């Protein structure tokens, strides 16, 4: 518990520092995948209420057990069509949008539930085979295609840069993403650039990220594997 507090206060200092420099508020999403409910509850007791999860089944069990309605849950995992109904029911944000087919299903279910879903479009900035997401030059058409779905609110972009770039501090693709984000921001009224995890969150904030997603730095190793 004390450990969480110490790490979180260090992260908050970094957030404060970059918020001042960037003149923008920066949000922290605490990634709780593979962490136990007790650990998450400890963090909730410290006053945090925004969490990210990757696996639908695992997430729903935890969300039901925690059973608090002032918590904001971000879905940050891969989307499968047959899981979308559950994602929509239990989550407030979906950060990993890159398929028009998924957008249509999400919109229909949201319309049924009378819900507006906050979404980020996932960008594969380093063009990695292993990662989902659109390439930079597919973005604008995709945004045009989805802008008229009434139950979807596009908040901005999300990306997971390559591990090598993150670890080596190679900021090139971060900068390209930021440029693109700034362009789209004006045109589409975006407010979210979701970029940065445990190993690159400072690099990300240094390149305009205003939402960082951090798991292992706070919790230590994941408590169980999928
Ligand atoms: C797991 C995950 C995180 C958190 O990663 P850590 O390295 O544990 O901080 C952030 N974003 C996404 C999309 C993830 O899958």
Q: Which key terms come to mind for this protein?
A:
226 residues, alpha/beta, TIM Barrel, binds pyridoxal-5'-phosphate
Note down, in words, how this protein is organized.
With 226 residues, this protein is an alpha/beta fold. The chain has one domain: TIM Barrel. It has ten helices and eight strands. The protein has helices at residues 2-22, 37-45, 56-66, 84-90, 100-113, 139-146, 163-168, 172-188, 201-206, 216-219; strands spanning 27-31, 50-53, 72-75, 93-97, 117-123, 152-159, 192-195, 211-214. It is globular. The two termini are 24 Å apart. The structure holds pyridoxal-5'-phosphate (PLP).
Pick out the low-confidence regions: none
Mean pLDDT: 96
Largest beta sheet, briefly? 8 strands, parallel
Bound molecules: pyridoxal-5'-phosphate
Number of helices: 10
CATH homologous superfamily caption: Alanine racemase
Q: Please give the order of strands in the largest beta sheet.
A: 7-6-5-4-3-2-1-8
Nearest-angstrom radius of gyration?
Answer: 17 Å
CATH class annotation: Alpha Beta
Percent strand: 15-25%
Helix content: 40-55%
CATH topology: TIM Barrel
Q: What gap, in angstroms, lies between the N and C termini?
A: 24 Å
Q: Structural class given helices, strands, pairing?
A: alpha/beta
State the shape: globular
Total beta strands:
8
